[in-house]
């Protein structure tokens, strides 16, 4: 990874956190943009954990519902946005076993 790649990744993470901060104020469009930017990676995490596409599909919706509910009224996510979503995904996948 080059310094440019690292800077780009940090900027992307800041953008995601900004979307979550806006979603916390009830901005549905910001949450949709956050979903669009992160759902493919969260789905990949779920698929790697479950090994079954149907299970990953079923879990994905619940993860984003939980994120929406937990963000309401917060100033920012408890950790970087993608890291937070990955933690929620891991917890949901473990709960299905």
How do the strands and helices of this protein lay out in sequence?
Layout: H1 3-24, H2 28-50, H3 53-71, H4 81-95
Protein name: RNA polymerase sigma-70 factor, ECF subfamily
GO molecular function: DNA-binding transcription factor activity
Organism: Microbacterium enclense
How would you briefly describe this protein structure?
The protein is 81% helix and 0% strand.
What is the number of E strands?
Answer: 0
Large-scale geometry: elongated
* The number of domains: 1
Hey, roughly how much beta strand do the residues contain? under 5%
**Relative helix content:** over 70%
**Poorly predicted segments:** 3-10
Element-level helix/strand string: HHHH
- Per CATH, the superfamily is RNA polymerase sigma factor, region 2, helix turn helix motif
Query: Which assembly state applies to the chains in this document?
Result: single chain
End-to-end Cα distance, whole Å, is 35 Å
Q: Summarize the main sheet.
A: none
Tell me which CATH architecture applies here.
Answer: Orthogonal Bundle
Structural class by sheet pairing and helices: mainly alpha
How many distinct helices?
A: 4
């Amino acid at each position: 990874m080059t310094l440019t790649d690292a800077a780009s990744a940090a900027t992307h993470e800041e953008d995601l956190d900004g979307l979550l901060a806006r979603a916390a104020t009830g901005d549905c469009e910001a949450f949709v943009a956050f979903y669009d930017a992160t759902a493919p990676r969260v789905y990949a995490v779920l698929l790697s954990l479950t090994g079954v596409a149907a299970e990953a599909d079923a879990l994905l919706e619940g993860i984003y519902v939980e994120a929406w509910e937990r963000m309401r009224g917060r100033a920012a996510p408890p950790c970087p946005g993608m890291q937070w979503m990955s933690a929620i995904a891991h917890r949901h996948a473990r709960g299905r076993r």
